[in-house]
Amino acid sequence: MFNSLRFRLTIVFTLLAVGPLLIIGAIFGLQGSASQLDQATELQRGIAQREAREVQSYFDEIENNIGLLARDIRALEQLDKAQLISVVLDSINSAAYHNIYQDVAILDSQGREQVRVSGQDIIPSYQLVNRAGTPEYEQPAATGETYFGPPHFDPALGRYLMTVAVPYTALRGIQLQGVLVVDVSIEALAELFRESEDGIKGQSTFILDQQSNVIAHSDVGFELGTATFQLPTSAGVAIGSTGDDVVLAWDSHQFGDQTLFVVSEIPVAIALASTQSSVSFAIGATGVVLVVAVLLVGFIVRQIVLPIERLTKVVQTVREGDLNVRASINRADEIGHLAQDFNAMADQTQEFVTSLENRVAELQILADVNNRISTILQVDRLLQDVVDLTKERFRLYHAHIYLLDETRSILTLTVGAGHVGRQMVTEIRTIEMTNQQSIVASAAHSRRGVIINDVRSSPTFLPHPLLPDTASELAVPLIAHNELLGVLDVQSDVVGYFTQDVLAVMELMAGQIAAALSNASLYEQAERTSRYERAMGNIDRQIQGAVDMDEILQATVRELGKALRVSHTAIELRLGDGDHDQTVLVGDGEGNEQYE
């Protein structure tokens, strides 16, 4: 009874009967909250204005530094490419602008790139482009003023960049000499925000562009690139950048045609922390008589609410996709039973999802392998692609294929994955079908897949010095039209890697391989027969048109060589009456030789 949630809720509701005595404290608390909220809003407005000035100073300094760099370039009497690169690298590698200048390009008066340095990489001449017609050239060239481009996200760097272009004229004139274009990282502003927020709990500052993209955020864990934020109509309480209720304010600054908004926010719970403390004190001071009751209510509510909140967070985490979390609530009441049931359900769901993901991945691999081999009609190429693809897609240690010879008694290693596999093939490795210590022979003889999940403890394992890390092995027969063609043997460097599910997938893939191998063999046989028939037809036609025996023999050896695809063909004839035999050797293109 005492472990019943119903019993404890009954006590809580009974104690809530004293709630009217706390109404006065609540009224004072609301008034204090409103006052505290106004103060928090003003504080955020001041922080936003201060940080906006920091942003203005940052870009002013960037513009001045780029202008100085442009003057250094203009000071060069002859624009030697090596000197230009040296000046640009010195600027990029300077302590003040290291990791700030991401891409620097020097354009001539026609908009053509003379030099471009991206990070620490010097772009070769053949990759330089003409930027005539782009805003970073046209606008500063036309107005003579600094151009600020819209912020753009660089996925490789994981940060936003802003293009700043500064024109410069000839050293002794007003004619445009060129434009210096620099992609400036905005990430440094986030560092400035973090330094300003040091010691302010929960404080966050971020920057928005004109398209409402979050381009810099003081929270190091905030993901840029796709995050957007819509500014509310007025400062105060709103939904913050992380989805929580916050108190926020903002300020803006204009940079050329670009407007950046600096937003400052703090969670409502932190902003009103002092008010909440005052309310708690007022409630506690309403009377000594209620102190014990309030403490008792707080204790009981905590005992009820805290486990529910913990379980709710676990449920939310699982709903968001993390199936590894579990509820750690050890209680004997309904909440404890609910947590146990939820953990059991989560275990089953995780096992099901994991199994489903593995099956989907394996079926996708099967589809990829089938698509790859279905169009290959050359046996050698087919087998090599199969073992290479199998090893790569299933992340195996090794894969190779044994083919059964014409006597149906010997399995010969025909193809292997990678350099090791090719080296093993050169060893002409064979396995007799009667070899009881070979997993390959066992799979071929039984026509069923065989698994060894720990080769160290298995007597049916034949080690090879080129594969010292083999820990587990699986062999499946290649069977097409009920005929054994060979065995697919795969190995892993992980003990227990091959499960029954993996075996089922490998058997499906072995069927695909066997069918493709059978089709390729039939195609090669048909192609070879067709080639022979064409050769016989050609020989017959040329014999009919020949005028002497020598022409007949030459046509025969020539067409036979083409049909058999050999480098040299010859016919040896023995002519004579028995006492004076004479041998004639007719070759393809090398003339006839006679000898006794």
Please outline the helices and strands.
Blueprint: H1 5-15, H2 23-75, H3 81-92, E1 101-108, E2 113-118, E3 121-122, H4 135-143, E4 147-148, E5 152-154, E6 159-169, E7 176-185, H5 187-197, E8 204-208, E9 214-217, E10 236-239, E11 245-255, E12 258-267, H6 268-271, H7 273-284, H8 288-319, H9 334-373, H10 379-393, E13 398-404, E14 410-416, H11 418-426, E15 430-432, H12 439-446, E16 450-452, E17 472-480, E18 483-492, H13 500-545, H14 549-564, E19 570-575, E20 582-587, E21 592-595
Helix pairs in contact: 1-8, 2-5, 2-7, 8-9, 9-10, 9-13, 10-13, 13-14
Mean pLDDT: 78
> Could you describe the largest sheet, including whether it forms a barrel?
7 strands, antiparallel
Beta fraction of the residues?
15-25%
Helix content: 40-55%
Structural class: alpha+beta
Estimated radius of gyration: 41 Å
Total count of helical runs of at least 4 residues: 14
Which oligomerization state do the chains in this entry correspond to? single chain
The shape is flat
Question: How far apart are the termini?
Answer: 121 Å
Poorly predicted runs are 590-596
Q: Please report the total strand number as a whole number.
A: 21
What does it look like?
This protein is of the alpha+beta class and 596 residues long. The protein is built from 14 helices and 21 strands. Strands 1, 2, 3, 4, 5, 6 and 7 form a seven-stranded antiparallel β-sheet that branches. The longest helix is centred in the first third of the chain and has 53 residues, at 23-75. The termini are far apart.
